[in-house]
Amino acid sequence: VGEIDIKDVVRIFENPDSKGEDIVALNKLSLIVQPGKFVSLIGPSGCGKSTLLRLIAGLDIPNEGEIFLDGNKIVKPSYERGFAFQAANLFPWLTIRENIAFGLRARHEYKKKKDDVDEYINLVGLKGFEKAYPHQVSGGMCQRASLARALVGHPKVLLLDEPLGALDAFTRMNMQDELLRIWEEHKMTMIMVTHDVDEAIYLSDQVVVMSPRPAKIEKIIDIDLSRP
Ligand code: ADP
Ligand code: ADP
């Protein structure tokens, strides 16, 4: 499970400059992501990568076309599809731990899965910072909290928008290996936007290269998975 089927998706934004032409971010884009694959999306800035990820998350709706998860049309966000944001998007009035546990509480699963929260706090290296508020820790730590928040609900699909972008090189390398470990353990479908081609090749078994706006799939590169 965890197949994503993107069918002829069009997303057009109104131009913030009222005299400007509408912005066609995605024009009839189609892509199938096989269950359990780790797919990276790369392409020039502004080509529509985040837009595509937000549509898969159900945070935005296409003007035309449809997206399916295991045959079910995506119409709104769901915990089946965890999303780790580039800008972390934590609630500033909640502690790191409360942020990570937020989805579980909303689903009334917190009591049952309390230990999972601690497991993921450890996994992303935030032990000792549970009671801090987002503004009290670094940007990289907020990104790691965002990752833990997406993972703790055991989603079928994990959507990652430059999840490691704000990390220093050392933490980044560790987190790359953690991501691989999590992926191999949970067998979830991963779709990651990154600007780092080496990272895309190291982590994913398929690299989807997008062309400049309106985004088309330029090519799909299968990576030989003979990882060390
Ligand atoms: P990428 O993630 O590849 O950098 P985005 O998906 O963020 O690209 O953006 C694709 C295009 O759509 C850009 O030209 C961007 O300015 C535009 N865009 C994205 N979101 C909006 C929005 N809410 N309103 C207007 N334009 C938008
Ligand atoms: P990141 O790589 O996540 O951006 P930094 O490089 O800013 O993190 O921080 C490196 C280390 O410094 C952290 O792992 C943490 O141990 C410590 N640190 C960062 N922010 C704080 C803080 N607000 N209070 C105490 N220690 C901190």
TrEMBL record:
**Is ATP-binding one of the keywords?**
yes
Query: Which UniProt keywords are given for this protein, alphabetically ordered?
Result: ATP-binding, Nucleotide-binding, Transport
Query: What Pfam families does this protein map onto?
Result: ABC_tran
Q: Which CDD domains match?
A: ABC_NrtD_SsuB_transporters
> Gene3D superfamilies recorded for this chain?
P-loop containing nucleotide triphosphate hydrolases
Top-level division of the source organism's lineage: Bacteria
- Record InterPro entries: AAA+_ATPase, ABC_transporter-like_ATP-bd, ABC_transporter-like_CS, ABC_transporter_ATP-bind, P-loop_NTPase
Q: Single GO molecular-function term? A: ATP binding
Q: What's the protein here called?
A: ABC transporter ATP-binding protein
Species, as recorded: Ruminiclostridium herbifermentans
- What taxonomic classification does the UniProt entry list for its organism? Bacteria, Bacillati, Bacillota, Clostridia, Eubacteriales
